[in-house]
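User: Hey, my collaborator sent me this sequence without any context and asked if I could get a structure. I don't really work with proteins. Can you help?
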Amino acid sequence: MMQASAHQLVYRLWKALEDENFSSTAVQYHMQLLLEAAQVGNVEFLVILIRSYPDLIWQVDNGYGTLFHVAIKHRQEHVFNLIYEIGVLKGNLACVCTKKGNNMLHLAGELPSLDRLNIVSGAALQMQRELLWFQEIEKIVPKSYVNMKNTKGKTPRDIFVKTHEELQKNGEKWMKGTSNSCMLVAALIATVVFPAAFTVPGGNNQETDIPIFLESNWFTVFFISDAVTMLFSSSSILVFLSILTSRYTEKDFLISLPRRLALGLATLLISIIGMLIAFTAACFLVLKSKTSVPIRIIVGAPAVPISLFVILHYGLWLDIFRSAFCSKRFLFRSQNRLFKQAS
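Assistant: No problem. I've predicted the 3D structure and written it out in structure-token form, which is a compact way to encode the shape of the chain:
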């Protein structure tokens, strides 16, 4: 309700300003306010103003450029996405340069502030996000601007490589550390479940050498979950091993490494769940004659570590899977807000 009230307040104040001999010169006096709104990502504020006065899109500040230049510099994707709603005219905005000779691609090559960089977890995912920004702006600016030099004689690629060198190294270090830790867990799981397939609960019949609980449904659950755990833990080890042996080029950070990490974590989670299901099935087989409350609690205990694993790693999982499979769709897309009729 406070957000809706704030929007109504901005709308009415802007209308009152228009009634007081509003002209293009008035816009220039409020340019700093608009730039600050773009810097912090207050897209709702900008939408209200641009709907009332569309010429705000074309206003240029000598030091900062347009609103979209500020959005790129501070990685405010919600503000930048407004550029997709003005059609082919966005090419004119892409030709604007700041007083230092920086075009949009130069700004995309610079490293943003830490608060904008840390909106995703892990240096590797941050590097991927920066690459996505640079590639997207590269599609918008004229081709001659890709290798254009600013007043310091730097091209956008020169700036990107220089400013992101440390981030790329940290991304490689973070990816290897995460892979090593997860691969260790997967190896421990594989070590546990492999002998469990041959030392089944209840043992074997001494005369026939057939498992005693072979006909039990819980024995089937135990054996299948044990086999699934072995399969997925082994797969997880191989996936994380492929991450450790990667070349760690820019292209690897863009698609390959995030998807490998997502696949490795998914197979690791499945192997953990399978191991706990196998434990539960073994408890039912051995203690099926026991119906006391403590036994039931022990049998249901595996739900606790599964829940903890999901809850404690929810944020990291969300960042990894979104970066691996739908990061570009989440970052750059038209939201049809600018010229949509206000409710």
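In plain terms: The chain has two domains: 2-163, 168-330. You can pass these tokens on to your collaborator as they are.
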